[in-house]
Amino acid sequence: MSVTEAYQQTANELCQQYQVGVTSGLTDAQVVAARQRYGANLLPVKPPAPAWRRFLRQFNNLLIYVLLVAAALALFLSEYLDMAVILAVVLVNGIIGFVQEGQAEKALSAIGALLCNRARVLRDGETRQLDASELVPGDIVILEAGDKVPADMRLLQVYNLQVQEAALTGESVALSKHSDVLTGVVALADRRNMVYSGTLVTQGRALALVVATGSDTELGRINQLLTKVQLLTTPLLQQMAQFARYLTLAVLSVAGLVFVLGYFRDYALSYLFMAVVSLVVAAIPEGLPTILTIALAIGVTRMARRNAIIRRLPAVETLGAVSVICSDKTGTLTLNEMMVTTVQLAAARLKVSGKGYQASGHIDGVDNAADRQTLDWLCRCALLCNDARLTQGATAEARQIQGDPMEAALLVLAQKHGLAQREQMQAYPRHDEIPFDAAHKYMATLHSDHQGHAYVFIKGAPEAVLAKCQGYYSANGAVALDSHYWQQQVNQIAAAGQRVLALAVKCLSHQQTLLNERDLQQGVLLLGLVGLIDPPRPEAISAIADCQQAGVRVKMITGDHAATAAAIASQLGLADAATVLSGYELDKLTDTELRQAVQHTAVFARTTPEHKLRLVSALQQQGEVVAMTGDGVNDAPALKRADVGIAMGQGGTEAARDASEMVLLDDNFATIASAVAAGRNVYDNLKKAIAFLLPVNGGESLAIVLALLFALTLPIMPLQILWVNMVSSIGLALALAFEPAESNLMRRPPRRVNEALVSRFVLWRIVLVSMLFTAGIFAVFNWAIAQQLSVEYARTMAVNTLVAMEVWYLFSVRYMQGPSLSWQGVKGTQAVLIAVAIVFGLQLAFTYLPLLQQLFHSQPLSFSHGLLCVAVAIGVFLILELEKWLSRRWRQA
Ligand code: ATP
Fold first, then answer.
1. Is 328 an active-site residue?
2. Which of 341, 379, 424, 814 is at 20 to 30 A from 111, Cα to Cα?
């Protein structure tokens, strides 16, 4: 059976062909057979570049070219040893880059795999949530607004379904779909009874039968291969890479100039060559791009461990600069474990006892037959106008819910009243529905009772439902509705922090199978209100406090009632919790008024996704960097607009995930706060790596330029510089990529988004440290020469001093402004200690191993001279501590 014909067949024919029941789905045995025949529902992924090509890519870099030219020059000047060492360094650098890049990419693709597409499937008579890759032809799938269509499917039942097929046809306007048969040959874009893999459900619901999976789908056919490779870069890293390129070019020009000048000053050619190569090698920060990429990859992996999945890497940087977090309430700030505690009838407020989703508990306070009958219908409405399912877990406490937790709570309410879901659904089968939509805030379903009566059940936000009610349901016939009274009841229940829903019914004396909004214009009777509790997440309370301390303002944007939202906001400890702006009021504000209002309003209630977009824009115009959460398909524009769009991994739709930069696996606000902290941490570490590496290069090149200017002996030889830069600098800087957060991380305000990475402060530090390093190198070198020690010996001391200064500077730079002279600071981290131990070992080898002595012209140092090198380094460290202390005092003054 080919896909092109499915649209020409009736639903019955197709179900027969796949031997599947519309209400039961495939059996497990059928799935196994189909799986063997068709394979997994996956599109072939482009294989990664072969290892040899990735290895060669490491050499495609300006510095390597420069080094290769240097090696060629060495060959030309018959300096074979120099040539061999340069080539060895190039090779080692390539291998390190290859391994690191491989690991970073592996980490990222492992994170990507956490975000698989899910599908709701009917199998063996029950609804299951499965990974979309497990679908087989013949499966019956339930589609809802926000879902990404997981395979090519023929629609069987459709409720108001609209699908955006841009992924396939390029057309971004959503099309409405139906389930009728089409005759003749119909073009792909016009097959309104089919939905195709990769397209997006923007509205409504549907039941559909899978007819093609994996590469048999239309997407699989037109699609070339899916490229999954994510570039390991961010704007900041690109800036730095460009900076490194400019620097290299500048260094090359200066080196050329030095060469020309030196040539006319009659330096020997080989000496000049050595000097120029030294300068080039000294001034270029070879390790910088690698270190920055690694710091970024470590940040992303750390965030993933805390349930925050970064979908677009630049978000790591932006997260650290976030100044406002706009969060949904339900499920993110609250537990989304709902329970009905209040039922309000016309003349009685009933209390509902019980715990969570457990069936034990009572509805207390009904004392007459009329109320009992109203309660009966209210519970029936709660049960039937409902898409959730409760399944019994191993114990009474471990009940599983499927679907919306609020609807599950309504099922529990009905159960406490003695109504069983299965029986009621059989007694009152559903024929049609108007699905819930955040814009109209209600849901309605149409049922019949096998005796020629039909019922429309409605539940939703009180103002939406009350506006449709003409009277109040009573056993003795409808009575007039006292709107003022009911509004008061809503406000009272909401002020206690409860979510309020109104339930209503319309009874019809004739059979009806289709429902539309016009049916709700007359004859609707209110059944009552229910109040549900949804406690705040305890961890959100402390996370909000942390954010507020870190200068990040938190705003609650909810579809819920203003009074409920305000009550929950104050339980959460949100600053300005009492200032609430409702969607209705928001509509009346001009853009200018809104820009002012957003600054001091913390709670936005009864909002729609369109309001979210206006709020993000208003905040951004005020210069804020905004993180915004969202879960529905209509939240996508606001998520895209926000600086960091955050989608929900559990409750959210695929559409929201596609539009966002980050996904919360646990839907928890506390995770956002920890991601902000992690973002700040990554940025700090990038800054530290730069502040660490650049002065080392600065110090080395300054030493060489000075030597040339004043016709002094070079204190460090080119190969030795290469050794320092490629071995100790990179090893030590790598430790900085693992630095944990500084203690004041969440106690300082967010950084300005346009703040330069190399700020004036960092620049000053770079200049100061460069000068200190140069002074240290010359001091030790000249002292050794003055002691009548050989030039080689003096150079070995200079190299060891330089590396010792690097090690001590590493301890200093770990706290950019705070003191490093504390037990915590000296103790370092595991990464720091390992790096220092390795570098120490390598320096011993450099100084004492005959083979390396030959390569680098080093000499074995006496113990006391070794100590002297370390002492000079400690001196530099102390000077830097003094500088930090002075600048702290100066800032405080
Ligand atoms: P948040 O935006 O913080 O997640 P929310 O879940 O209350 O809050 P919406 O989903 O937009 O936001 O819901 C808005 C209102 O619509 C709710 O307060 C409730 O009154 C009503 N509502 C929500 N879900 C349903 C549903 N399944 N059926 C009927 N009414 C609903």
1. yes
2. 814
